[in-house]
Fold these 2 entries.
Entry 1:
Amino acid sequence: MGNPNVGKSVVFERLTGRYVTVSNYPGTTVTVTRGRATVGAEVCDIVDTPGVNAIEGVLSEDEKVTRNLMRDGGAELIVQIADARNLRRALMLTSQLADLCLPMILVLNMMDEARARGVDVDVPALSEELGIPVVEAVAPEGRGIAELREALPQAGRPSAARDAGLSHIEWADEMTRRFRTIGAVTIGRIQEWLGRAVRQPLTGIPILLVVLYVTYLVVGVFGAQTLVGLLEKGLFGTFINPWSVRLAAYIPLAFVRDFLVGDYGLITMGLTYAIAIVLPVVTTFFLVFGFLEDSGYIPRLAIFSDRLFRAMGLNGKAVLPMVLGLGCDTMATMTTRILTTPKERLIAILLLALGVPCSAQLATIMGILGGISFWALLTLFGVVLTQMIIVGFLAAQLLPGDRSDFILELPPLRLPRLRNLLTKTSLRVRWYLGEAVPLFLIGTALLFVLDRIGGLAIIANAARPVVTGLLGLPSKAAEVFVMGFLRRDYGAAGLFLMASNGALSHVQAVVALTVMTLFVPCVANFLMIVKERGLKIGLAILVFITAIAVGTGAALHAALRIFHVAF
Amino acid sequence: MSLSKPQPLSALAPGSRGTVIRVTRDLTSRAERLAALGVTPGAQVSVLQTFPGVVFECDQTELVIERLVARSIWIELE
């Protein structure tokens, strides 16, 4: 355990061989991960915990979880990971941990960065004073891990503030003064210059625009157009689908044939959506996103967005779950745990479910609207963003409770390590294949059955007043919304095919996608909301969001018609 | 080196350096949360930026806080 963003998960991976997503911002780990390691002849259970700044006093939700885990969870030994640059803060925590009376080891991680900043720690003397092993490490390179393994049996209870009759802070101050020296800084000029450039508005905002544009080029153009084109028209259009149809012709049962390669066929619809349309975009997005995560850039966006978030009853910290939501709303819903008050968490969860499109959905949005015009794309994001701000603003006024102070630690800017970037991306792609693709297939099977028993026609009829009347869409779009309830991106993929077959006009595509984007992301996200906030709030959010989605779509349709916008 | 009158962090210009002498305690947990991040009396700080948020370095760590919070951190300039 240890302070946030000190590299606990990297050390955990090095000890157990189990990869935990690692990034360069506080709060990447919000759940407890368990693993096993063999030390000497013994097998140990090792637990990776979320970062904590304190285990005494006023605590956030994950700090309480971590404290209870150590106090009542049968922990036998604590390995505290510390950022060597910041010995004082680490020791404040050490001192609080000492009161738990468990054997401890202190690992000073990021020794390389500390040295670059001129920080030097007299490790042997510190170790002697504390009475516990202190290990120097650079975990991503594996340095210090062997030493840590060797030191495990020598762990002891540290002598800290209580033994010296001081407060935690006084003790940490004194230890830091005695054992740490700060010398000449050899930190790269480029790093310092870049740090300044991204946080000052005059340079920071143009940099943000460039980052967004590059993301658009990689994900929206290369991923959503080039790669999707290759896979959809090339691989699936010319090879897989025609071949499957030819192969399926040997199947004597028409029912089975249609189930595989018909209009709602597992291969022609399910796999085509999942692999040809969504996968390329998800992959390119995860790559860019992982790069940004590891660079330490994302928390810096909080500086600019604090004021906006404050109007919505949140603070700049909320930028983390919001941006993470672009990767996956379900994961981001969990990350709202880094927010302090229950009100903030509820608003963030609501806004995530309402407006933040996840990677798979961005895929389809870019795929459809990228092909229409930049203005279509801008309209959609404009409407969704405005809607989020309005809802956030109202929620801030109506919900009881307070927002908390905006206090955020900025992680150092770093050049991401290629190894971590690739591991993380491949892990996330694998997660997509394992989690989302089966849902696509289940959804397709469901549609097939509904279509066969005539259910689809009934739904389309029932929804006609809303779909064709209010939203001005073809009635087939109702089917797509049924799919959208399962997963937003799956529904959006349906719209993608309708659009590319010419079944949707440009205006209709914008309206349909806007409604889809405002929907609750997917079944998984809904279940996560229920898990985090309870069934009642979950259902309330679902009903509220559906109403907002349809209402906004109707208003947009009316506005576009009145002003004769055609894109 | 003459010691000047304490000023709140929110009043300092970018480039100022000093020592935290006091963090105003109120009914919220503000002071405790700042302490957990190393902002306690005695800590050395240097102000990096004051708009849109107050960005400062304390003990090798860059922190960003809103103006309201910066008002409760009192600094003695170097």
Note: The radius of gyration of chain A is 26 Å.
Entry 2:
Amino acid sequence: MSEDSSNLIFVVDDDPNQLMVLDRWLSREGYKVLTLEGGEACLEELSEPLPAAICLDLNMPGLDGMTTLEQVHERNPILPVIVLTSDDAVDSVVRAMRLGARDYLTKPLDQTKLLTTLRNAVEVGRLALRVSQLEREVEGRGYPGIVGSSAAMKSVFRQLDRLCVSDVTVLIHGESGTGKELVARAIHQNGSRSRGPFVAVNLAAVPETLMESELFGHEKGSFTGAVNRRIGRFEEAHRGTLFLDEVGEMSPQVQVKLLRVLQERTFQRVGGSAKLSSDFRLVTASHRNLEEEVKQGRFRQDLYFRLAVFDLELPPLRGRKEDIAALAQSFVKRHGGGQVEGIAPGAMQMLLNYDWPGNVRELENTVQRALVVANHEEIQPEDLPERLRAAAPQPVVPSPEEMAPEAMPAESAQEADTTLEDHARRLLLQALTKHEGNASAAMRELNIGRTRFYRMLKKFGLEDKIGALRQSK
Amino acid sequence: MTEPGSGPAEAKPWYSRVDPDLLELLPGLLDNLRDDTEQLAQLAVAEDYLALARLGHNYKGSAVYFGVEELGRLARSLEISAKNRDRASIASVINDWQTLVKELRLPDEP
């Protein structure tokens, strides 16, 4: 729940007089009140920002209070609901409490009792949310693989906390490589459907002609090549989560079909006549700005509203550079296999200087690549691709220009480096020369460990240099 | 008018029993009540017992905001009569209801 919704209260009643009065009483206490005239309206509004509590009349036309209560708790089991009922409806109260109502109040309502009950309910809801967060932390359930302590990621984690205790449809948007599928998996794994399947479909990768079969399944013989009956993704996701990636790539025809499934919650296999239903939570993602796509007429507005019940935006990596170091280290740990243990400061600086247009995925790929080429305990600048070195404004070790000309070996000062190894050799030689063969001082300057230092000396054939430089002092 | 049911000696206006917090809302509440009162006769003619019972049920819970106990009593009677589909009782309640509501005037109303 976002901070500003911590005092949002839904008041649901078909009686306009009750809505008017409760709005006044609660607003005066500092609550932000949303009055709703029925259960349908309540469920429609039940997205972010979620209310801190709901005051719900039981006796309403249309979707009655009891059904509304059930559906609210299916979506969010810890959201406190106070039921409002007339004094002669004891059976209803008992049933409502069994369905998870936090408390009940009888009409005519007493202002003081209402405010006390509501205050308690809001506090209980707040604590329940906190307990749920702590349980995840204690049990190590957290959000595996999602790394970050930046303000942007803290906001994402807070939103995930809310999403994991609800069942709302989520639209994740963010640039390519920001971790949309990882987040979708986290929502599934930490939610009430975690025992069910997580079914991911990248719609951009499914050919248009096979899309229907992929999503709805097909009956044997329904088209050329349909030699067996195939269960579609909707059916596969029953009691679990269906993750549709790149929904912005759907053709208008597929958009219509998806909309129909979401509206009717039923579908048919290709070539089949039976109406099937499936109980799944829908999480979708797109790298496109779907609101803009709607404006441009490329995406259906009605479908957009169905998908974006909760809109979760993932920040680009360049917008949370403070997370780069932790992310890079986590990738070294994950992919390093114990051979490489870290990232040298010079290399880390390069990672920090780069803008990462491919976001976390590009960072992970870069670290993986560096781990392959690295032959040190730590990833070095030379292990990183050229595009990163080009982006690095400040090398950590002094550049040839920064070094005193007299300290530079004449032979290397005149020649340009042709390879990374040439560059590394020259830096090593410069450091040794500058410190007149003092190995410890050279190591400090290069910021490398003893083992690597001597390994590099051997590799570059500079083992004799220490003695020679010391003698020439 | 004075408080319905009170004698001439007690000259308190009917809205004196309204919760002071709700006085500002009274014109709006009264508008709703008058609209609903207009509907009552139509619902009775249409024999829409469900709607009559619902209206009675709602005012059973909200009559207190008007500070008029009689309204709560009539609302309860309307709900029961409608549930029993008792046309005579419904007609009687509606008659009393309309009479009561006509008497509920705000200070700035003629």
Note: Chain A has 21 helices and 16 strands.
